[in-house]
Amino acid sequence: MRQSADFSLYLVTDSSRCTMMPLEETVAAAVRGGVTMVQLREKTMETRTFVEVARQLRALLSPLEIPLIINDRVDIALAVRADGVHVGQTDMRVQDVRALIGGEAIVGITVETPDQIEEANALDIDYIGISPVFSTPSIPRNVKPWQIPGIEKARSMTNLPIVGFEGITTANAADVIAAGADGVAVVSAICGALSPKDAAEELRSAAFV
After folding, report:
1. Given a cut of 70, is residue 139 above it in pLDDT?
2. Model confidence over 145-164: pLDDT tens digits?
3. 115 half-sphere exposure, CB direction, 13 A CA radius
4. Which Gene3D superfamilies does the record cross-reference, listed alphabetically (predicted)?
């Protein structure tokens, strides 16, 4: 799986933003529209529910050979035999994640500064999530967005696959890819769409023109 992972259209879930249909139906529709990887990120979900949802998504995605990544929770990833784990700068250290989840799992880390890219280059990871690419209302004011020049700088600093996180839309996805990213990650652009399938198709078409 680590050799064949496709990061091009990376869906990050947020059940609170899935206003048009339930989470599993949203993911299923988005996959039909071209999503290539799914990260289950549910910060407020109770653990038992989180496991149940993760198991449902694993059953949906595994036959399609689309990786299921669990945000932060290595225990849940292990419980449902997910394909990998994504961690942030304040989550479990990558070395500990890798020791627990094994050498074949996909492991990614969020980076917010160039210094963190240099640190990531020395880690046993499969991709880096550049965040935030653009400013959004959910981003604290003291966090500086990378913007397009930042993506270009990041590309010059690493050979790892790069996924752009935050503020990605059909209007800017192509610019993010052109700057050197291997993929774009979206939440509300798909989760909150009237048709997650159509939204995924539009994002994919816009990003890879």
Report:
1. no
2. 999 999 999 999 999 999 99
3. 1
4. Aldolase class I
188 is in an annotated binding site: yes
Is 14 annotated for ligand binding?
no
Q: Is 71 annotated as a binding residue?
A: yes
The CA distance from 68 to 53, in Å, is: 12
88 belongs to an annotated ligand binding site: no
To the question of whether residue 64 is assigned a binding role by annotation, the answer is no
Q: How far apart are CA 1 and CA 64, in angstroms?
A: 12
9-207: CATH architecture: Alpha-Beta Barrel (3.20)
Tens-place pLDDT, residues 97-138: 999 999 999 999 999 999 999 999 999 999 999 999 998 766
In what helix (H) or strand (E) does residue 106 lie, and over which residues does it extend? Answer: strand 106-111
Domain boundaries of the chain, sorted by first residue: 9-207
CA-CA-CA-CA torsion for 162, 167, 173, 177, nearest 10 degrees?
Answer: -20
* 202 belongs to an annotated ligand binding site: no
